[in-house]
Amino acid sequence: MSNFKPIPIGVEDFKRLVDDGYYFVDKTLMIKEILDKKGAVNLFTRPRRFGKTLNLSMLQRFFEKTDKDNAYLFDGLNISQAGEKYMQHQGQFPVISLSLKSMKQGDFSDSFLLFKKIISDEFKKHQKILPFLSEEDRSDYQEIMSRKADDSHYLYAIRTLSDCLYAAYQKKVIILIDEYDVPLETSHFRGFYDEMVDLIRSVFESALKTNPYLEFGVLTGCLRISKESIFTGLNNLKVHTITDSIFSKYFGFTEKEVKKIAEDFQIQDKFDEMKEWYDGYLFGETEIYNPWSILNYVLSAITEKNVIPKPYWSNTSSNDIIHELVVDGNEETHNQIEALMNGESLTKPIYEDITYRNININTDYIWSFLLFTGYLKPIRLLKKNILTYAELVIPNVEVQTIYQTTIMQWFDEKVRSTSRNDLFTAMISGDVDEFETLLSDWLDETISYYDSKENYYHGFLSGLLVGFKGYDVKSNRESGDGRPDLLVLERKRHKLAVILEIKVAERFRDLDAKCDEALQQIEENRYEAELKYDCFQKILKYGVAFCDKACRVKLKEG
Q1: Strands lying side by side in the sheet with 253-254
Q2: CB-CB neighbours of 471 under 10 Å
Q3: Which pTM was predicted?
Q4: Which of 149, 201, 318, 374 can pair with 153 through a Cys bridge, CB separation 3.0 to 4.6 Å?
């Protein structure tokens, strides 16, 4: 490992990344494109952990006028080879750089306090300009910096700082705002959304809409969120979403970049696994890998001989929206989740101007939200009237596991909160018709996914049967000449034992035959032998066959 450059997991400061010799995937030509496109205000919407913060830091370090020359940071990088036309802009502008990603407080009051601190810290960073300001401006500056100004002053504090920076440098200002929609998302889930919208709208209008001293601005977030009038009248705003080809290669890793990473860290044999787990995103027409997961996987691969892929991305933020989708989704929504989980696609209209108000779990807006936040990907876009439709699928194995884990947690919660006494009683009493009926009812209410159908049904049935007082459930326990799928054993008196063998039918008409096959397997492999040896007085043998959401149950007493 000592021969490799350190991997920059969690390193979001471009200067630190270069100074400390971290491995770097060169995205500096994004600077060239921003200068070429000349957008007054650019909004980049990408999923979490796809390099937005590092890219903004790169822009800051390139453009910012500082006491120490930062030009060396770009030596040998792509932008340095793009020509003097671009490098002449290096270190020439005052830059205001803010991140709202930590605004995740439980109420508006605490959120606003943190916002004031964020503004105050940015004023402190530029306080060397104080001698160049008028007495009145200096007084306002110091009050905001010390957090003693009236609350209303913080609504246009970025504009105030712009004015002061221009007065000091006689140069227009670049404004960078990272993760602008985090406070909106948090306030949506915590119940103070309208107040937060008013705050963000006021800040943006003064800083980006009516600011004569703005050179250009760059914002990042997951969603556009313009219908709330956050960007009212901001006719100089250019939005770059994941459906656009422009700038598509600058957030996340391209396949060529991932192959180079695998080569540099001598793990070329792991490429196929990396592709299966962490590829699958499509930004414009560019195939993109999840950069956070790739870097974490590479770190594991060079330190562990037999590395096992993990869903690294699922641990970077809450999956509240997936939980809501599973828990609060209606039958139609659950059926659509099932289709996605089983490798099918959904064709849905794409709404780029999403609002948190209209992200109802059971409407088409939810699928656009999942697309823009990285939980789905488009494999085909088509125009119909004025709407764009996308054929959507789950991107990769990593995201599939997020859905699976959430569904499993929901099923466990549902099982614990719902009485299953009638189901269990029907089984141990040998009421085969009632057992089959109740099992079918549970199937109807469950979100099914079939990465392995037998494993799924095995987990489904065992989850329903565990937790009853006086009984143990054994899964694939050694018995006789084989391994029965499930055993339900009366714990103390050894009066009753239940053997359940599970089969999966491809067609409904084969359910009866599969039940017979299961019962035959129980007999041929003498599953009851050890149970009789253990003195169980009564043995019930069930053949249980499943086909999608249908089941058939047959019983034979031993």
Answers
A1: 253-254, 286-289, 281-283
A2: 18
A3: 0.88
A4: 149
Predicted confidence (pLDDT) at residue 228 exceeds the cutoff of 60: no
Q: Residue 190: is it exposed, middle or buried by C-beta count within 10 angstroms (0-12/13-18/19+)?
A: middle
Answer for the pair 170, 218: CB distance below 8 angstroms, yes or no. Answer: no
Cα separation, 474 vs 487, whole angstroms = 5
273-322 confidence digits (pLDDT tens)? 999 999 999 999 999 999 999 999 999 999 898 899 999 998 666 677 78
Structure tokens at 492: 């103390």
Q: What angle do CA 93, 95, 97 make, to 5 degrees?
A: 165
Alpha helices in 342-396 (DSSP H): 365-372
Distance between CA atoms of residues 184 and 344, nearest Å: 32
Positive/negative CA dihedral, 198, 199, 200, 201: positive
* Residues 231 and 354 sit within 8 Å (Cβ to Cβ): no
Token pair 């998302």 is at which residue? 185
Residues 6+ apart with CB under 8 A from 552: 436, 511, 512, 514, 515, 544, 545
Q: What separation in angstroms does the CA of 200 have from each of 39, 45, 180, 197, 554?
A: 21, 17, 8, 5, 63
pLDDT tens digits for range 476-504 = 754 444 678 999 999 887 789 999 999 99
Sign of CA dihedral 19, 22, 23, 24: negative
Helix (H, G, I), strand (E, B) or coil at 171: coil
Q: Of 319, 317, 295, whose CA–CA distance to 11 is shortest?
A: 295
Contact between 90 and 70 under an 8 Å Cβ cutoff? The reply is yes
| Per-residue model confidence as pLDDT tens digits over 502-531 | 999 999 999 999 999 999 999 999 998 888
